[in-house]
Amino acid sequence: MINFQLALLAVRDVEVSKKFYQDLFDQEVELDLGRNVTFSGGFAVQQDFEWLTGIEQGTAVQRSHNMELYFEVDDFDAFMQRLEAYGGVGYVHPPKTYEWKQRVVRIYDPDFHIIEIGESMGVIARRYLGQGLSVEEVSALIQHPPEFVQAAARGDV
User: Which of helix, strand or coil describes residue 10?
Assistant: First the structure.
């Protein structure tokens, strides 16, 4: 049996990354091994990745733009205020709204990994249900199945 454990991000300074994920994303440290820190969200950061893996020094790529960590927030506006107050964060793109009505922003972490922060789809479904739309109308609008919209109405997502 093979069990996926977590995603690991190579970082230059584990303390800088730890502060970033704790301060902006409310990640709790589950295991701190010095150069390796595992967070409550199911991912870890690793300083000295090239040494650990035995790959050639200087070959870890920054801004590879081929993966991202994805977070959802219930209050997108409050998160944007928090992000602005944190300062010094680079944007992949400014906040935008997709056709499925989700507001999203993508930023870089201190090591230029892409982080996507999206408004919770459950919150979006409840917003439109609260405006009087039917489950079917909300499902079509947010491009999620009716079962998801029903779960959102119950507060399960």
Answer: strand
Count of beta carbons in the 10 Å neighbourhood of residue 128: 19
Domain ranges of the chain: 7-47+63-119, 122-154
Alpha-carbon separation of residue 145 from 135, 141, 151, 156, 157 (angstroms): 9, 10, 10, 14, 13
Q: Report pLDDT digits (tens) over 126-154.
A: 999 999 999 999 999 999 999 999 999 99
Instruction: Please tell me the CATH superfamily of domain 7-47+63-119, with its number.
Output: 2,3-Dihydroxybiphenyl 1,2-Dioxygenase, domain 1 (3.10.180.10)
Q: 145 in the Ramachandran plot: left (φ > 0), alpha (ψ -120 to 50) or beta? A: beta
